[in-house]
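Students often ask why we bother predicting the structure of a whole assembly rather than each chain alone. The short answer is interfaces. A chain on its own may look different once its partners are present, and contacts between molecules only exist in the joint model. In this exercise we take two input lines together and write out one structure for the complete complex. Read the inputs first and try to guess which parts will touch.
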Amino acid sequence: MDLYLPIANLSVNALVIVALGAGVGLLSGMFGVGGGFLTTPLLIVYGIPPTVAAASAASQVTGASVSGVFAYFRRDGVDVKMGGVLVAGGIIGSFLGAWLFRLLQALGQIDTTIAVTYVLLLGSIGGLMLKESIEAIRVTRGAIPAPPRRRRHHPLVASLPFRMRFYRSGLYISPLAPLLLGVATGVLTILLGIGGGFVLVPAMIYLLGMATQVVVGTSLFQILFVTAAATMVHATTTKAVDIVLAGLLLLGSVAGAQIGARFAAKARPEYLRLALAIMVLLVAIRIGLGLGWRPDEIYTVELS
Amino acid sequence: MGERAGTATKRWRIAVAFAAPLAIAASNPGSKPVLVPDVSQREIEIAYSFTGAELLLFGAILLPPGEPRADARHPIDVVVVVKGPVQSITIREKEKIAGIWVNAERLGYRSAPSFYAIASSRPIRQLVDDRTRAIYELGLDSLQLSPASSAPANVQDRFTRGLVDLRARSGLYYEAPHAVEITDGVLYRARVNIPARVPVGRFTAETFLIRDGKVLGAAVRDIDVRKSGFERFVARAAQRSSFLYGLTAVALSVLLGWGAGQIARRI
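Now the answer. The structure tokens for the assembled complex follow.
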């Protein structure tokens, strides 16, 4: 079933895009991540222009996170105060990201930057997750003793001024730390079309030392608002949001996410994390190899 | 009554349009041959199901009385060139730097056609010499792209070849030798495929009549490619009311996400 995309200016097979959305949605429901880190590269491989891919993938992440946010609200799993600080940072970050995007586009280095950032980010986070999940599996099997539970924020975070109380997170820290974290994920959202969940969640646990029961809900809350803001920034600056493409992705992903969430309820969390870590590392390796291989296209054309 | 009169006038006009060249050709012996071209579609509308279009270009070759008819030694050839709107573009070239491929050099072009298809009755290099091909822009190696810099000729050539190769592989530039059929030396027809990736705008279909290495006649027809219906509405909304467009995209994603959650809770 061929469908013409009015902004990307090309015709795609609608079923392939819906299936792609469903696959990513399934994974995002299972692992609790937005899945933007898979959507954008896959769309580019399918032939969608990179800018349109990044701009339209952000709205898919919005759709995937909505039902999660509602679910966490119902069981009081969102720290709205902390989330608000993160969202404020995220919105600042998305404007910063838009400026960076235009700058890199003018220099002709946007594609390389996207690829290198993906490799570094996915490689490091995937590596950390792999190590952590293998340890967790060995603990549950009784191979090694459980490490002592520490929940402390990073010393750098503790040194920041203007401390505030975040009751739901169980923290007394400076709001500057989550604000800066929000700015960083906002930049990533604009540049890479990702929600930033897989950066945010480890950072909230290991850097801020937040109470784990509100980590996922609060990160989803931040992702919802920041991807919505990113869609707005793309719509008004790059004008590259393809609503038809976004709609097709959403159709697949919202359905996939619900099915994925049911799978996740049955599976053991440390095995899920192991699978996610392996997947993230595979994507990183594939993109990294792509940087070193001689590309199919030595020349690229852009309108000026 | 008025409508019938209008149709009659239209018919009369068409008759004149066809007869006029015949009359000119007949009244001036020794004058140049005339091409009467037409296209199957003057407008190509891009709608949701658009996957490309096939244009049929056809017409008549009117030889003046003095001109001998086509034979094996002096054949008449027809070349059809379809061009898309020109674009101002920047081409970037990747180079391997520190182990990874990054964009290094670049070159700007002021007027590169977004689409270029040349169909001919015989391979174009057998019909005319290089100079004529450069004048009329016949063939992928004869495009006049006007580089917007003073880069040395060999660098410009390298970038031009890169552009032509890139667009040829995505079906935007191509040569179709033998795609023009000529019947009895008077009627010609050619099919040209327009892929779905073309930009909107005014396309031109130029037809050339070639004999003995010379371009004897030429004629141009315009074809408008535009988005229609929903596609035009979306493209316009994205450009003109981008804020509302963005809000709609966000609302769509929130509604779909929320709706799916509600449905899943019921099941």
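Check your guess against this: Confidence is low (pLDDT under 50) at residues 1-10, 13-17, 19-27 of chain B.
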